[in-house]
Design brief:
This protein is of the alpha/beta class. It has 9 helices and 6 strands, in the order ααβαβαβαααβαββα. It has 2 domains: 79 residues, no CATH class; 112 residues, Pyruvate Kinase, Chain: A, domain 1 (3-Layer(aba) Sandwich), CATH 3.40.1380. Helix content is 43%, strand content 12%. The strands form 2 sheets. The chain has a 3-stranded parallel sheet with strand order 1-2-3, with helices on one face. Strands 4-5-6 form a 3-stranded parallel sheet, covered by helices on one side. Strand 1, helix 3 and strand 2 form a beta-alpha-beta unit. Helix 6 packs across helix 9 and helix 7 packs parallel to helix 8.
Amino acid sequence: MIAQTLARMTVAEKAGLLLLAAVPGPSLDRDTAAMLRDTGVSGAVLLARNVESTPQLRALSAAIETACGRPSLPAIIASDEEGGRVQRLRDLAPPFSGAMAVGVVEFALDASSRAEEGSASPSPLLVAVRERFPAARGATVHAAYPMAAESAAATALARECVALVVGTRDAHLYPAQVAARDALLGAAAGKRVAVVSLRAPYDLAGVAGFTSVACIAIYGDEPAALAVAAAMLGE
């Protein structure tokens, strides 16, 4: 359906899909809504001036979706959440550390995960999800070289579950990881599904072919970022 929609679009309309607009305040006024529709942008990026409370943010997001959404192409709504001194979401989410601190934490986690490769300890993402959903079950698939038994166990969970959370790590560098992710998304078709891209957002590029999938991009395994991702899953 997405491919068919894109095939019917002009070059100018496709160019609009590459753009996100900024909106002036905590609600969407008539002129701004008209601008979003007329320019054909794919959505909006939210700044501090757009954030007051959870109900207000939901209402604003719904208004942006109405103005920008197209059949089979939902609007893209992002936040310029840089971390450190730049906290766009304010009190609505745990504070993110700055980029330097995230880099240090990622390096430490990468070093420990290589040293403990093959251990049965749950992933940091599964630990964070279980803080909100204690009954959550999980399966770990090797990022670069998924084993058949690992993939089969994960696919079985995807078929049985009520909702599915898939965490990826640099999947854009590993075709086998992309194939494993897509198999899970296919097994969970019609269910509530979220894909959490750890470290880099590029993993989400290939998710566009699946409908009704929530995409969450964070930059590492930092507890605060994982906690926000888990909190978003509960909304």
